[in-house]
Design brief:
Elements: H1 2-25, E1 29-38, E2 41-50, E3 54-61, E4 64-69, E5 75-78, E6 81-91, E7 100-109, E8 118-123, H2 129-146, H3 150-168, E9 172-173, E10 177-179, E11 185-193, E12 198-207, E13 212-219, E14 224-228, E15 232-233, E16 237-247, E17 256-262
Antiparallel strand pairs: 1-2, 2-6, 3-4, 3-7, 5-6, 7-8, 9-11, 10-11, 11-14, 11-15, 12-13, 12-16, 16-17
């Protein structure tokens, strides 16, 4: 009796252990993340892998917390589960003396499993308003104590130069993602930012010979654009796509490229074989028979 009870307890412990191992194996994982600070906004891009589809992403930076729903297209099915990528933009208002902002990221799959909490830090550039405000505040005090006008003009010129540098900066575009390449109807996804404002986003598709086969221009306004192109219906073969952002003044970003293939490429046509031509057979010519002459 005691042996049977001990055996039952061991079986229960083994089952609980296996369930815990299985749950741990299904836990999603954030494999990569990076962040960029621009005009009091933090743009965070992350990638993940999981055994089930990711349905939500939760990001916190400073006092801001944001949770977004993940599009099913952002989950790419693989042999071992799913791979995916998403971007989140948060508004932030750093303090004057603040040089960086910390953030946290967590994803959740359709089974309710949450990834470990991932932390990071994004630096505030030296050209951001906080740094320039400190320098201007210190310079303002020196100028007014000295009572000189010349130094004030120099500070104004420097401010104009800083503004011109920001305005001249080109747009920034992230890597372009190809959606559904196996279906023949593909879409392309990317994100672009600019300090002043953008005018349009372009997608150009080229075949294996380098010939442009299709294109799309999307009107874009504001400092941030994030979205997906139209459906491109392509025949089987090898292709590449180039995405590029254009700002309001006509400045262009770098070209974001991606190569992909549409499965089911047609085989080369076999030449038709003509049957040999047989010359006609002519019947034999029989000479006429001459009757014998009577003597």
């Amino acid at each position: 009796m005691k042996k049977s009870i001990v055996g039952c307890l061991l079986a229960v412990i083994a089952c609980l252990f296996l369930v815990g191992v299985d749950a741990q194996a299904k836990k999603p994982e954030i494999t990569r993340h990076d962040a960029q600070y621009l005009d009091r906004q933090i743009s965070i891009n992350l990638k993940w892998k999981s055994s089930a589809e990711i349905v939500s992403v939760r990001v916190a930076a400073g006092k801001e917390v944001k949770e977004i729903k993940v599009d099913p297209y952002d989950n790419k099915r693989t042999r071992l589960g799913y791979l995916g990528e998403a971007s989140v933009v948060l508004e932030t208002d750093p303090m004057i003396s603040q040089e960086s902002i910390g953030y946290t990221i967590q994803v959740q799959d359709e089974d309710g499993q949450k990834s470990n909490l991932v932390t990071g830090k994004v630096d505030i550039p030296a050209t951001a308003y906080s740094q320039s405000h400190r320098e201007h505040r210190d310079q303002w005090g020196k100028e007014h104590l000295a009572g000189t006008e010349k130094s004030g003009k120099k500070d104004m010129i420097q401010q104009l130069r800083d503004v011109a540098t920001v305005l001249a900066a080109p747009p920034v575009i992230l890597d372009v993602t190809v959606n559904n390449p196996d279906t023949g109807n593909v879409t392309f996804k990317t994100k672009a930012t600019h300090t002043v404002g953008m005018r349009e986003i372009t997608f150009r598709v080229f075949d294996a010979t380098g010939k442009q086969v299709d294109a799309q221009q999307i009107s874009a306004t504001g400092k941030l654009w994030e979205g997906t192109s139209k459906d491109f219906a392509l025949t089987p073969g090898s292709y590449s796509v180039i995405a590029q952002a254009v700002d309001a003044s006509g400045g262009t970003s770098r070209e974001s490229r991606a190569a992909f293939m549409i499965a089911g490429a047609p085989t080369a046509a076999q030449p038709t074989t003509q049957p040999p031509v047989t010359p006609p057979v002519m019947p034999p010519v029989i000479p006429p028979v001459t009757p014998p002459v009577e003597p």
